[in-house]
Specification:
Layout: E1 10-14, H1 19-31, E2 36-40, H2 41-47, H3 53-67, E3 72-75
Parallel strand pairs: 1-2, 1-3
Helix pairs in contact: 2-3
GO biological process, one term: proteolysis
InterPro entries: Caspase-like_dom_sf, Gingipain, Gingipain_N_sf
Protein name: Gingipain domain-containing protein
């Protein structure tokens, strides 16, 4: 489980290639009172287990909402960047 040093209202989940391009949005949200941080998919994959990457992200979101004080989650990327499961 990932532990934040602070509480955040919003967690942005994105592949690491979007880290730099997401900084203006994160700064904007923080400036306007919505405490925001970025969690890369790679960080999530390193910390969470699951049958696939989609499930690892699901478990991170569950932890973020239930135990880390997060209220909102933003997913950044396309179907080619973020895993999805089709049933």
């Amino acid at each position: 489980m990932i532990h934040f040093s602070d509480e955040y209202d919003l967690v942005v989940i994105a592949p690491s290639e979007f880290t730099v391009s997401m900084q203006p949005l994160i700064q904007h949200k923080n400036t306007h009172g919505l405490t925001t941080t970025l969690m890369t998919t790679e960080e999530i994959y390193d910390e969470y287990s699951g049958r696939d990457e989609a499930e690892q992200i699901k478990y991170f979101i569950k932890d973020a909402l239930e135990t880390l004080g997060v209220e909102y989650v933003m997913l950044v990327g396309s179907i080619y960047k973020l895993p999805m499961r089709i049933s």
